Amino acid sequence: MPFSKWHKAPNSQTAWLTAQPFAHRGLHGGQQVQGGQQVQGEQQRVIENSPSAFRAAVAEGFGIELDVQLSADGQAIVFHDRELNRLVGGQGYVGTMTADALRAHILKGSQDHIPTLDETLALVAGRVPILVEIKSRPRETGLLEQAVAKSLKTYHGPVAIMSFNPDSVAWFRDHNPQTIRGFVASTRYPKELGWRLSTAAGQMAAAIRIKPDFVAYDIRSLPNIFTRRVRVSGLPLLTWTVRSDSDHAKAKVHTDNVIFERL
To answer: Are 118 and 73 in contact (CB under 8 A)?
Structure first.
């Protein structure tokens, strides 16, 4: 299928994707926030995908990128890893615990708990754009997507879903076509993604099939024939995770917007 046959949402629906940078997993790092000011300190940190990280992004006018996984009772939980140990300590898997049990956990070095997507949407309340990265795998597609769609149904504000899983993007195309959807891609993870989705040719074939409204691409894999074709097609091209001056310079040449972290 010619590249010109790609689906393309109206510019009026996707212009916000390139209007302001997105803070990767919220605006987090070694700073703590007190009274709207950042305070350096080891005891209290702003942790990724936390309410404090989202408040900090809103305070500075940045969009928010966040990750969601499915709890045992079918709720969308804002958390990146499948296991709890890196960010919480101890053993456990997100998918084996209820939302209430997960919310009871405090994130390491902070006073924040693990939030649900519903809670996060209420916190942001349309003040800045949100990118919801769906952490489902092809064989799992459906339940997490349904939970996210339910949460977004009554949300008023710029929001989009995106995923490495092409079937997740296709699920929204088929069941919630009004939701702006993005395809996340990289050439750096052949073990996790499989060889097809780790090549520019395979990514191009997937994009033609699932018809995303935008692409979010690994800064380390730029540029290649796929990302060049994305830009020629007119689809917004975002890049992650931008952390350095050289990353920003590279992104400025090859993409339309950044998903960034501060060092």
So the answer is: no
Tell me the C-alpha distance between 149 and 121, whole Å: 12
Closest CA to 173 of 130, 211, 133: 211
The tokens describing 61, both together, are 């006018």
Supply the pLDDT for residue 48.
98
pLDDT at 139: 86
The residue among 205, 213, 233, 166 whose CA lies nearest residue 5 is 233
- 39 and 31 Cβ atoms separated by less than 8 Å: yes
Burial class (CB in 10 A: 0-12, 13-18, 19+), 121: buried
* pLDDT tens-digit map of 120-155: 999 999 999 999 999 998 888 999 999 999 999 999
pTM above 0.90, yes or no: yes
Quote the DSSP letter at residue 107: P
CA dist 104 → 28, 107, 111, 139 (Å): 21, 10, 11, 29
Treating both helix axes as pointing N-terminal to C-terminal, what angle do 117-124 and 51-60 enclose, rounded to 10 degrees? 20
Neighbours of 140 (CB within 10 A): 15
Decide if pLDDT at 47 tops 60. Answer: yes
Strand 22-24 vs strand 159-163: parallel, antiparallel, or unpaired?
A: unpaired
| Per-residue pLDDT tens over the stretch 221-250 | 999 999 999 999 999 999 999 999 999 999
Cβ atoms of residues 123 and 155 within 8 Å = no
